[in-house]
């Protein structure tokens, strides 16, 4: 996924970031803050900050992990500024705006079904479980790295992951016929 | 894979690995597989939700306008970089060489104080010795005139002043002791001669 690439021009590098990582980063932010406008701001700020230190983290060869870490920092800062934790239970998740120009009824129905499943799944997870599972999924971070990112012991990160997986498994079994 | 890790962590690494799993067995692996499927589904749904409503072209244009166009102009002039450390070394070495040369030259121009000046200061002393002392003593007519006596008094004062200054100098600089001693002797003799003439 994150193999070292030949040197790209600035335009190409930025375009590859947007093409390959923007959906994941925006989805990550959206899953935690559940507000599209905030997720858009986070996404832009992630690229802005990553661009300033692109030479250092490009050498590490893990663009997605690095971007997800920045996104996680920004989301935590945003939540801290508002004086609340990341256990948001507002109904904004279901009120997402449809994609611009998306008119295919089948695609629309599939999207809505996925959103509904996702909303159910996310509601079942605690903020810590969400962060661990999504950081593991998108960034491919080791659990030690996730624990460092969360500022918690390794066992706590492992516990979040285990309980989150158990919740998701129960959810999947209950939704399957 | 990851055999060095604790059991819990190893199981979770297996369950949440993005790579396809090679084999699985037992009830645990079924549970693990179900959890893994749920996790993959969650991740895919989150990414799809991130894609939903995202205008990548507008985002890219905004980022290009902000990050590439303007910073390029500001970062362009940093091409000619000078290694100032070498310049500092060269400047310091030049200053050291110049200071050394100045020190050497100043030492050559400043001989030991008191050694060279001694003959110059002592030169006026032998001049009175050229006049034979008996001739001076044999001219009583000169002694009787008052203006000449005043001129001898002034000369005596000047000699005493010079003598005092030289004695002060001799207390400060030991290198001139020898020449001062000689000069002292000459001065005393000169004073005696003058005193004899004045009488």
From N to C, what is the helix and strand string of chain A? HHHHHHHH
Kindly identify the CATH topology of the largest domain in chain A.
Rna Polymerase Sigma Factor, Chain: A
How many beta-strand elements of chain B? 0
Category from helices, strands and their pairing of chain B: mainly alpha
Q: What gross morphology of chain B would you assign?
A: rod-shaped
Straight-line distance between termini of chain B: 125 Å
State the share of residues found in helices of chain B, binned by percent: over 70%
Determine the strand fraction of chain B and express it as a percent band.
Answer: under 5%
Return the CATH architecture of the largest domain in chain A: Orthogonal Bundle
Number of strands of chain A: 0
Number of domains of chain A: 2
The most extensive contact between chains is: A-B, 57 and 39 residues
Summarize the main sheet of chain B.
none
Mean pLDDT of chain A, to the nearest integer, reads 77
% residues in beta strands of chain A: under 5%
Q: Give the oligomeric state of the chains in this entry, treating copies of one chain as homo and distinct chains as hetero.
A: heterodimer
Q: Helix content range of the residues of chain A, please?
A: over 70%
The geometry of chain A reads as: globular
Which consecutive residue ranges of chain B, at least 5 long each, have pLDDT under 50?
118-122
Q: Can you describe what's shown?
A:
The complex is a heterodimer of chains A (177) and B (199). By secondary structure, chain A is mainly alpha-helical. Chain A has 2 domains: 1-86, Rna Polymerase Sigma Factor, Chain: A, CATH 1.10.1740; 104-177, Winged helix-like DNA-binding domain superfamily/Winged helix DNA-binding domain (Arc Repressor Mutant, subunit A). In chain A, 73% of the residues lie in helices and 0% in strands. Chain A has helices spanning 10-33, 36-52, 54-60, 63-81, 105-124, 127-139, 143-150, 154-175. In chain A, helix 1 (10-33) packs antiparallel against helix 2 (36-52) and helix 6 (127-139) crosses helix 8. The longest helix of chain A is centred in the N-terminal third of the chain and has 24 residues, at 10-33. Mean pLDDT of chain A is 77; it is low at 86-102. By secondary structure, chain B is mainly alpha-helical. Among the domains of chain B are: 1-17 and 33-49, no CATH class; 112-198, no CATH class. Chain B is built from 10 helices and no strands. In chain B, helix 9 runs antiparallel to helix 10. The longest helix of chain B is centred in the C-terminal third of the chain and has 27 residues, at 146-172. Classes of the chains: A mainly alpha (177), B mainly alpha (199). Chains A and B meet through helix 1, helix 2, helix 5, helix 6 and helix 8 of A and helix 1, helix 2 and helix 3 of B.
């Amino acid at each position: 996924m994150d193999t070292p690439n030949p040197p790209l021009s600035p335009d190409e590098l930025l375009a590859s970031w947007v093409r390959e990582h923007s959906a994941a980063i925006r989805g990550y932010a959206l899953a935690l803050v559940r507000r599209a406008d905030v997720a858009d701001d986070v996404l832009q700020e992630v690229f802005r900050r990553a661009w300033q230190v692109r030479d250092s983290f490009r050498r590490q060869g893990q663009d997605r992990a690095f971007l997800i870490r920045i996104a996680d920092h920004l989301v935590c800062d945003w939540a801290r500024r508002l004086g609340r934790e990341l256990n948001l239970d507002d109904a904004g998740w279901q009120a997402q705006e449809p994609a611009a120009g998306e008119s295919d009824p089948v695609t629309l129905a599939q999207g809505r079904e996925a959103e509904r499943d996702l909303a159910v799944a996310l509601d079942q997870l605690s903020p810590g479980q969400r962060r661990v599972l999504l950081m593991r999924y998108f960034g491919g971070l080791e659990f030690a790295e996730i624990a460092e990112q969360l500022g918690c012991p390794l066992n706590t990160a492992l516990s979040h992951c285990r309980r989150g997986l158990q919740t998701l498994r129960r959810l999947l079994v209950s939704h399957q016929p | 894979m990851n055999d060095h890790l604790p059991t819990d962590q190893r199981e979770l690494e297996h369950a949440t690995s993005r790579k396809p799993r090679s084999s699985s067995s037992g009830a645990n692996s079924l549970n693990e597989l179900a959890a893994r499927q749920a996790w993959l589904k969650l991740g895919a749904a989150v990414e799809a939700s991130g894609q939903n409503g995202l205008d990548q072209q507008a985002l890219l244009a905004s980022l290009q306008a902000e990050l590439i166009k303007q910073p390029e102009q500001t970062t362009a002039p940093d091409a000619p970089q000078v290694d100032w450390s070498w310049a500092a070394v060269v400047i310091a070495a030049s200053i050291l060489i110049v200071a050394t040369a100045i020190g050497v030259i100043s030492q050559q121009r400043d001989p030991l104080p008191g050694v060279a000046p001694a003959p110059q200061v002592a030169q006026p002393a032998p001049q009175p010795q050229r006049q034979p002392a008996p001739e001076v003593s044999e001219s009583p007519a000169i002694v009787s005139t008052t203006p000449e006596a005043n001129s001898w008094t002034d000369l005596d004062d000047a000699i005493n002043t010079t003598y005092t200054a030289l004695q002060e100098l001799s207390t400060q600089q030991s290198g001139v002791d020898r020449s001062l001693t000689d000069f002292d002797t000459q001065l005393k003799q000169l004073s005696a001669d003058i005193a004899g003439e004045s009488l």
